[in-house]
């Protein structure tokens, strides 16, 4: 019920971290130890010269180490600058790569499958309806805790919140990771029950288009996910049927764009 309320910080131009601190004491100690090992304590003049050389050698090593650190930092920053420039320009490879990395730890598997100008196409795999329990916590008239069996309508409503929540959080994360994007098309799919061969197939249960501007100002803390989808999407296919208003699969034969999207994705790793 709250998955759509997750907040994401918008990406900004990344800055390479500062170089690590040089261990001055360790470097000096190493050179001093080597100088002492080469000279005798009784050869004072030779040892004095060796220690002076050791100090110079330590200074040279620290300077070289610092230069290497700064060179590595500059190279890393250049790579970050290049990637940010590509991301800011909407380069499809950069956008898809950034979203793939961002979606790796999502509760519901998601993938960005295409970029068209400033619009991205997303797929999110939602749990099947039988994932939800059939009872919900409540209290009796006497104030005792109880587990009440949900009606079909309550169960259907809860599942719609789950589906819409995962779709919305995927869109919100995409907009945060890639500020260049102005809109997103998202299709929520779930696995069908296994067929006679044990194979699972995807079926779409929600298809919607969201514009970044229309999500600005949404009262996330109070609006539920279904309300946000209905009010903030510029296009949507969200079929409900029967007295319980159960979420119904989209007829892809009547929706060629959804059918093409499903055909373009390998769901074996997602389902």
**Can you tell me the residue ranges where pLDDT is under 50 for at least 5 consecutive residues?**
none
Q: In DSSP terms, counting alpha (H) and pi (I) runs of 4 or more, how many helices?
A: 7
| Overall 3D form | elongated
How would you characterize the largest beta sheet?
A: 5 strands, mixed
Query: What is the total number of structural domains?
Result: 2
Radius of gyration: 30 Å
State which percent range the strand residues make up: 15-25%
Q: Which structural category fits the helices and strands?
A: alpha+beta
The total strand number stands at 9
Biggest sheet, strands in spatial order? 1-2-5-6-7
Order of helices and strands: HHHEEEEHEEHHEEEH
Q: What value does the average pLDDT take?
A: 91
Helix content: 40-55%
Terminal CA distance reads 22 Å
Question: What do you see in this structure?
Answer:
With 271 residues, this protein is an alpha+beta fold. Helices cover 44% and strands 20% of the residues. Strands 1-2-5-6-7 form a five-stranded mixed beta sheet, sandwiched between helices. The longest helix is centred in the first third of the chain and has 45 residues.
Notable characteristics:
about 270 residues, alpha+beta, 2 domains, two-stranded antiparallel sheet
Task: Please render the helix and strand layout as text.
Blueprint: H1 24-38, H2 44-88, H3 92-103, E1 110-116, E2 119-125, E3 135-139, E4 145-149, H4 152-177, E5 183-191, E6 202-211, H5 212-215, H6 225-232, E7 233-237, E8 239-241, E9 246-248, H7 256-263
Parallel strand pairs: 2-5
Antiparallel strand pairs: 1-2, 3-4, 5-6, 6-7, 8-9
Helix pairs in contact: 1-2, 3-4, 4-6
């Amino acid at each position: 019920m709250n998955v759509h309320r997750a907040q994401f910080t918008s990406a900004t131009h990344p800055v390479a971290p500062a170089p690590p601190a040089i261990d001055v004491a360790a470097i000096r100690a190493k050179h001093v130890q080597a100088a002492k090992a080469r000279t005798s304590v009784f050869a004072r003049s030779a040892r004095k010269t060796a220690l002076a050389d050791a100090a110079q050698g330590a200074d040279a090593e620290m300077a070289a180490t610092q230069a290497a650190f700064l060179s590595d930092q500059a190279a890393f920053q250049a790579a970050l600058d290049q990637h940010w420039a590509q991301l800011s320009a909407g380069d499809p490879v950069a956008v898809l790569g950034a979203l793939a990395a961002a979606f790796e730890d999502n509760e519901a598997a998601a993938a960005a499958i295409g970029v068209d100008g400033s619009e991205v196409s997303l797929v999110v795999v939602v749990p099947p309806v039988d994932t939800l329990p059939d009872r919900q916590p409540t209290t009796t008239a006497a104030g005792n805790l109880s587990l009440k069996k949900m009606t079909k309508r309550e169960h259907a409503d809860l599942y719609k919140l789950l589906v819409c929540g995962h779709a919305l959080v995927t869109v919100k994360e995409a907009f945060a990771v890639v500020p260049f994007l102005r809109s997103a098309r998202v299709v929520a799919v779930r696995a069908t029950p296994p067929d006679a061969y044990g194979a699972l197939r995807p079926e779409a249960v929600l298809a919607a288009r969201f514009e970044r501007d229309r999500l600005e100002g949404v009262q996330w803390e109070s609006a539920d996910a279904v309300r946000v989808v209905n009010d903030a999407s510029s296009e949507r296919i969200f079929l409900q049927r029967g007295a319980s208003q159960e979420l119904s699969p989209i007829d892809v034969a009547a929706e060629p764009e959804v059918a093409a999207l499903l055909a373009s994705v390998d769901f074996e790793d997602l389902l």
